[in-house]
Amino acid sequence: MTIDKVLDAKGLACPMPVVKTRKAINELESGQVLEIHTTDKGAKSDLTAWAKSGGHELLKHEEENDVFKFWIKKG
């Protein structure tokens, strides 16, 4: 998987990870992939719902050392 941009949203509380994700994905072309790192436990449901409602594809997510990582492909 090619990562086109990485967003560091660690330490930010809801709704900031989603706000920052929206801003970052707007800078990408359709089909490009954004990798997001966050420590917000609510981000899994928030980013999953946000990606779906925005026509983007959540490729995968994982948790590593209390950091949640998401890969979203711009629709």
From TrEMBL:
Belongs to the sulfur carrier protein TusA family. Keywords: Transferase. It comes from Lederbergia lenta. CDD domains: SirA_YedF_YeeD. The lineage of its organism: Bacteria, Bacillati, Bacillota, Bacilli, Bacillales. Its EC number is 2.8.1.-. Transmembrane segments: none annotated. InterPro entries: TusA-like, TusA-like_sf. This is TusA-like Sulfurtransferase. GO terms for molecular function: transferase activity.
